Amino acid sequence: MNKFNQQFAIEVEDLTVAYDAKPALWDIDLQIPRGQIMAIVGPNGAGKTTLIKAVLGLLPTASGMVRFMPDGSAKPSSNLIAYVPQSGSVDWDFPATVLDVVSMGRYGHLGWIRRPTRSDILMAREALHKLGMADYERRQISQLSGGQQQRVFLARALVQQAEIYLMDEPFKGVDARTEGAIVSLLRELRKNNKTVVVVHHDLQTVKEYFDWVTLINVQIVDAGPVDKVFTEENLNRTYRSAGGLLTKEA
Questions:
Q1: Where are the beta strands (DSSP E) in the chain?
Q2: Edge-to-edge strand order for the sheet containing 22-33?
Q3: pTM
Q4: Reduced to 3 DSSP states, what percent helix, strand and coil does the chain have, rounded to the nearest 5?
Q5: What is the average pLDDT score of the chain?
Q6: Are 166 and 84 in contact (CB under 8 A)?
Q7: Quick check: 230 pLDDT over 60?
């Protein structure tokens, strides 16, 4: 990649990640388009979460390069990316209220010394309102259900006002109300020309929720617009090594 293509938010080249000499990702080349909602889909152990974390620089890589908009920098600016981790990886016993957690999303704009201003608090409350959590702002996060906790973390990401949103299985284990709130948020972000990348496991909703899809099983099987890439042939190629041909439950 000699010149960064402005059509893309992130470009990944020759990325390999290994655990104990066993590759978790192998020779990944991927271009993530700007202003689209993209799903990362594959079987358990395919490297979906590993890819997200490697892009963020949270894991050491054996080789390869990741470059970010707008100029192809290898290190994104602090406010460029918002990350929503898997809910199971978060310490929900941390003593903080819902409003405190969402307000933390403004720290990249404030620095570590300044406290959130009145406008920051109003922004946090607006994000909670969008996600149906306005009545819970004084509640301790440990007192929330799994779906409510997920909506709080989505609200925190929203107030970061990032250009790129990376979400690791935000739909996993949530109720129908939370799923609807997440879909509405994704579409709002796309309307505002934000780029959203979502690790996703429900094959039945890929065509409904996403514009682009990356099919992965340690290596990239295919990536591109959903209507071209999300085919039975590609899905069978993606899931075959995970235990046979694709089933509806995969």
A1: 8-19, 22-33, 37-41, 63-68, 81-84, 164-168, 195-199, 212-217, 219-225
A2: 22-33, 8-19, 63-68
A3: 0.89
A4: 40, 25, 35
A5: 88
A6: yes
A7: yes
Measured in Å, how far apart are the chain's first and last C-alpha atoms? 35
Pairing of strands 8-19, 63-68: antiparallel
**Quick one: tokens of 115?**
């406290």
Amino acid in the structure at residue 109: H
Rounded Cα distance, 114 and 152, in Å: 22
Name, in order, each residue with C-beta under 8 angstroms of 138's C-beta and a sequence gap of 6 or more.
97, 98, 99
* Whether residue 244 has pLDDT greater than 50: no
Token duo for residue 100: 């405190």
The amino acid occupying position 166 is L
Least Cα distance to 1 among 75, 64, 51 occurs for: 64
φ, ψ of residue 141 in degrees (nearest 5)? -60, -30
Least confident among 44-58, 179-193, 230-244? 230-244
